[in-house]
Amino acid sequence: MKRRFVLTSLLLVLVLTVCLSGLAASKAEIVNGRFVKTRSITVEIFDRGNPGGSKPEDNFYTDFIKKGMLRDHNVKVTFKPVPRWTEVEVLNNLLAAGDAPDVCVTYSYPTIQTYANMGGVLDMAPYLDGNKELLAGLWDLLGDSNIYWNRDPEKGTIWAIEALLFQNKRINTFVREDWLKKLGLKEPKTLAEFENMLRAFRDNAQLLLGKDADKMVPYSTSFDVGWRNDHLLISFVPESITEKERYVYGFDDRRLLFPGYKNGVKKLNEWYNEGLIWKNFALYAAGDKTEDNMIKAGYVGAFMHNWDYPYRDGQEGIHANLQKLVGPDAAYIAVECFQNNAGIYRKYLSAPIDRKVFFPSTNKEPLASVLYLNWISKLENRKFLQIGEKGVTHEVLADGTIQTKAVTGAKIMNSPNNIDYTITINGLDLGDTDLNVKSVALGYGGVDKRFIEKAYKITSNEARYGKNYNVGQIYAEEGMGAVLPEKRNNFLIQSVVAKPADFNSVFDRGLQDYLNTGGQAIIDERRVKYEQFYE
Amino acid sequence: MQTAVASSFMEKHQKTIKYLKKYWTLYLMLLLPIAYFIIFKYIPMTYIQIAFKKYSIVQSPWQMPWADNNGMEYFIKAFSNRDFIYALRNTLWLNVLDLVVGFPAPIILALLLNELTFKRFKRFTQTVVYMPHFLSWIIISGMALKLLAPGTGLVNIVIERLGFASVPFLNDPTHWRWTYVFLGIWKSVGWNTNMLRAFRANIDPQLYEAAAMDGAGRWRSMWHITLPGIRSTIITLLILSLGHILGSEFDRPYSLTNALVISASNVISTFIYTNGIRGLQFSLTTAVGLFQSVICVIFLFAANALAKKFGERGIW
Question: How many CB pairs under 8 A join A and B?
């Protein structure tokens, strides 16, 4: 009996020590949110090659992050630059070489999915769920909705979390305000008025550009036809499009497969053959600055682009250059002219998701990495990254509104509101809705706020937002992430520049090729899965 | 006993040992290039098996599972992919054009340079024609855009001012092929005269003197002395070019292409880039690469055998 007692108590002591030491080990790893031993992680950062920019991996703002992470979590952060405009290609190379940063960010979910299937991506679920109490900042910002956005409905894996698209803005149509005045035209409110305006630009090149009349481009666009003509193209989509159609055809984020799209492209084809569109747009590849330079020099009458495009980049941007090179009246203003069949200025905006953040399987510090995401998601940290230093990159006005200022030199922000560093949020957030709206309008140093307010309003006017239909992986999308968009761009460009008589055949052949290459398989699988989970 | 064995060994291999004693430094020097080929050319070949296996980024190629259809899945996939068939056709098209137009160019240029009398002018011309060889294709494509774009390119501005319609050098598939070939010649012709001119130097000058005595003009001596003198070099170069008939450069078509000419400019190397590296289908594109290499080797052997049949030396 005695012996038994001794044995049992010994066993109990043993079990207790093992348990305690086990707990202590995991507890000892982190004390008060700080690692006991210094950890190191690498983080991807977009390199925009912006004129006058600082080194994206080493500047005032990276120093702020590095110091903060070392202070709060004892984690050393190193940034790894990846070119913004070829991010998917470069990231692919890095992943394939086993050289990718510990914290990766991309706009392409199919890329992540493909690598996940090969075992190249870490499942974030255990690190997120297991450390919830340490990740309050991340949860406050993204909520369950964005964190669990990509959670597999059956297996529960999370390959990537979705950054928050805080201001869900997309595209605007810009026209030269001073040209409208010069020609005595009113701001266009319909497609017909917009077209007539372009024709007026073309026919009055001598008046508008003088000796540079031969450089006149009434309307410019780029190789990315879908993005750069979105408002026009989308206005041909019938109002009756259903949620199911939006989901099934929505894998192409340029909305190529939405019904009615072809008619929009046909309109572009007409414009091209009328001499309204920049003749050589097809020859210049992604990242080429030729078009930007034409716009800055004042040769371009109208274009569509990111909702705030001409107002970006401060002194190096389009607005400042236009004012310098052409005159103080020269400016682009956002206009609203493209109604759909119901007479609504409909926009199709995505759900509030933005970039996707993931950890490759080469990441040996998943805990330090989720702490990093948490750190940059905390309001005080991301606020500093977004608006910078008081008196340098912003002023606080009497009513509390933040007015950001464009600076050059060491404290320059390489991306608007340092979006490239705040990888969990896209859009200015000061923690107060009212303040946000007022501050965004003031957020473009050197640009009159009436331009911003108008652009801000129009870009999401009468918008329909996307919803999350989480049906797990669509297997047909695998390996198609780069091939299909390239096919789409190529045949859209060919359709735009085709002779009017050839338009139908060029477009139809291109679309057929797109569908045969893998588009149709994706449509079919999406339809089946949608019906399985949602009908 | 041992010494006897050793001495008999010595006797047997005396010649070899003597030879090695004399030339061992040369063999030592060979070690480095051999190591280079083993490390960078032969070891990577183990990855050829990706073509027959389901690729995974985290497994070694020995562990990856075999692809369907007895490992031939990706070859079947490639040949049922229309883009691949077009890429194959375009690669052949462009390479045949390059061969027909581009191959004689350096020979003609070498002969012309050979006939130049003023030494200084000759040197100057040589330098000028060499230069483009050192430019990268990215730079050349930028220059091509500035010079040849319709409406804004210098060449087209001149053509328009002369009253003609602008020529779509870069934005029409047929024209683009010629632009591609012409730029290729422009870049490489000077450099390729090098080897020919080096062999020209081996021709005995007495032959020219004798021919001159017999009353042969420049044309005659070029035809009967210079050309036969460099014939074996020409044949060697031709065999090597035939070995590349299905090979394709990457930077040249990739930097010169645009969406309007994709039907002519999509070649095997760009197909591999789009589908393999960007599209992450590594097995598929390894299969394509392997196919390409096998065809090239077949052409190389065939051309060599043909050359030997016609009494030439061949390359091995």
Answer: 82
Q: Cβ separation of B82 and A489 shorter than 8 Å?
A: no
Contact across the interface for A96 and B259, Cβ inside 8 Å:
no
Please identify among residues 467-506 of chain A the ones whose CB lies closer than 8 Å to any CB of chain B.
478-483, 486, 489-490, 493-494, 497
- Considering the domain architecture, whether residues A371 and A286 belong to the same structural domain is answered as no
Same-domain status, A159 and A192? no
ipTM of the complex: 0.78
Domain ranges of chain B: 2-38, 74-309
Range of the domain at A108: 29-167+354-381
Residues 1-60 of B with CB under 8 A from A: 55-59
pLDDT tens digits for range A457-515: 899 999 998 888 888 888 888 778 788 999 999 999 999 999 999 999 999 999 999 99
pLDDT value of position A8? 56
Angle, vertex CA A199, rays to CA A197 and CA A201, nearest 5: 70
| Candidates B54, B55, B57, partner chain A, best to mutate (most A CBs within 10 A) | B57
Q: Which ranges of chain A have pLDDT less than 50?
A: 1, 16-25, 27
CATH code where residue A132 lies: 3.40.190.10
Contact flag A96-B277 (C-beta cutoff 8 Å): yes
| CATH assignment, B74-309 | 1.10.3720.10
